[in-house]
Structure formats: structure tokens, C-alpha cells
Amino acid sequence: MCCVSLTVFFQMKSRLKSAGFGITSSTAFFQDANKLFLNEQAKWVHLKEFARKNAANALSVSNMVMGMASILCSLNGQNHAACWLVLIGYLLDLADGAVARQLNACSALGAKLDDFADFTTFGIATSLILRTPSLLDNILCMLYVLSVFTRLCFFSSGIPFMYRGLPCIYSSAILVCVSLLTGGNMAVLRILAVAMILFMVRQNFYPHDRVLESQAWKKVVYIGGVAMVFCSSFPPACVYYLLWSVSYILFPTTLWSSKV
């Protein structure tokens, strides 16, 4: 009888241990799952923060890539493609500053990337449309690059919402549009390049071109530019960008001031 009682006791104890072990395992499983969920949630938060901080930088890098691609096209004699790539860089450059301010992600790195991208696309890449075997044309190319470099060095005017010197993005757009419309007529491009160099180094004041942060009509202008690049044949698109850029030079305050 005693042996039977001991056997029942040990069986009950074994069952209780088994039940307790099941509860412990279940609790551990839910704890691990909760930790995993929290870790995944934290990773997602970090990923979103990284994307927010670097969205504008990605646009600047894309602009730089467009410039490098344009340089390669020019060196291979594909001037038409080179000009179109510069115009795409034009749109990316207008967007990166707006995105940085909208997401509150302005940084010293972003400012440097923007300058590097501008120098690549609107300096080196644009100057190559002026390149010919002529020594004088090659000198003009170098002068244009130096004028863009000078313009970028004097970017900060010390006056809120103002540039010093014509932004190189507009001189570049005018040159590539005229190149496309005239079939690369070097006589016209030489005269225009000299004029753009003078505009950039004169250090006159121009308003910040916050197209995407101004009135609705300016945003429509930008959207129209995007549509022209991807949905239109090149003559209307070139005329569109040419008028846009010339209006900035002729009527900078009345049309394109950030206060308007």
C-alpha cells in the first residue's frame, strides 16, 4: 500500500513539473516574440529616420550622376543625350533644397553634396557642349568652368533669401536649350557662353528660386518642366526651359522672389 502511494505521488509530481515546464516555455516564447517585434519596430523607425535625413542627399547624388552621365555622353559625341541629362539635373537640383527644408533635414553634408553636384552638372558637363578641336573653344570651356566655380564660392550673399551672381543652373539650362534648338551652332553658343559667364561673375543679387515652396503657379511651372522632359518632343521642352530660365534673369524679383 505504501509503495502504491509513493508511486502515485511521484506520478503527480512529474505531471506538475510537466505542466509547469509548458507554462514556462510558453511565456519564454511570447517574451522572445515581443522582443523580436520591438527590435523590428526600432529598426523600422531608424530606417525611416535615415530616409528622412538623406532624401535630399539622394537627390543631390542623382543630380551628380546625371552630370557624370552627361560628361560621358559628350565625350562619346552624343550631345543630344548630354543636354537632356543636364535638364534632368536641373529639375533634381530645384527639388533637393525644397525636400531638405520640408523634411527639416538640412545639413553641412547636404550643402557640400549640392555644390559638388552643381559643379559637375552645371559646370563641367555644361562646358563640354562648347568643346571643339579649336584652342579658343577649349579655353572658353575652361573659363566657363572657372566662372561656375567662382559663382559657387560666392554662393552665400549674407542677405536672407538672396544669391550673389546668376545661379549656374539657369545659365546651364539656357546653354543646353539653345544648343538643342540650334543643332549645336557654335557661333551662337560662344556668344551666349560669354554672356552667361559675365552674369555669373558680376555678383548681382538674385532671389532664392524656391519654386516648390512658393505659390501654386510656380509649382505648376515645375510640374510642367517634369512633364516636358518625359512626355514631350525636344523643341517644345527646350522652348519651355529657355523661357523659364530667361524669365528668372529678366524678372528675378517680380516673378521668382521667394516672397512672391
UniProtKB/TrEMBL annotation:
UniProt main location, coarse: membrane
Protein's cellular compartments: Membrane
GO biological process: one example: phospholipid biosynthetic process
Any matching Pfam family: CDP-OH_P_transf
InterPro entries reported for this sequence: CDP-alcohol_PTase-I, CDP-OH_P_trans, CDP-OH_PTrfase_TM_dom, CDP_ALCOHOL_P_TRANSF_CS
Nuclease among keywords: no
Protein name, as recorded: cardiolipin synthase (CMP-forming)
Organism classification: Eukaryota, Metazoa, Chordata, Craniata, Vertebrata
